[in-house]
Amino acid sequence: QKVINLICCSLTPKSAAVYRIAPQEEWGSNGDGAVQLIRLFEGSAGDTGFFSVTKEKGCDESGDSWVVANYTSTTCQSHAPWIYGQMMPSHVYVFRCRAVRA
Question: Long-range pairs for 84-89 at CB < 8 Å and ≥24 separation?
Fold first, then answer.
């Protein structure tokens, strides 16, 4: 089973996103609001998904500025299998994000 799972996982495309685990009072009566999508990284493809998020250096704790670093394959499309992305060149991208209240 482990080998089959590894093969199936390696042959499917991957992407990256940031989710938030909400405070319990935001979950709602059936828990639908417990996990909230913050940002989908549209440009990530192939070998991807191990990004890092941290507060921007020099910002106070109440600040809404974040720094995100992610690596992604530069020669594959979003539908490429993960194993193909593993074998292709990758670049690291670092960018700033600001949290905006809806």
Answer: 84/46, 85/14, 85/45, 85/46, 85/47, 85/48, 86/10, 86/46, 86/47, 88/46, 88/47
